[in-house]
Design brief:
Number of helices: 1
Largest sheet: 3 strands, antiparallel
Number of strands: 3
Distance between the termini: 68 Å
Shape: rod-shaped
Structural class: alpha+beta
Strand content: 25-35%
Helix content: 40-55%
Strand order of the largest sheet: 1-2-3
Amino acid sequence: MDVSERIQRMMSDFEQQAAKAAEVKDQMSELRGTARSKDGTIEVTVAPSGAVLDLRLE
């Protein structure tokens, strides 16, 4: 395998890894976490960044 072929292979590997990273990023953006107080009067849903997406007070 000559230098040009190795560079092509490395670029191809890099592009595949970048595509996988983009998929993971997209999947993570869909993650949500929800917690509820023991008595059930407060419920909060947050994004991976910690941003509050929903807050329910009863």
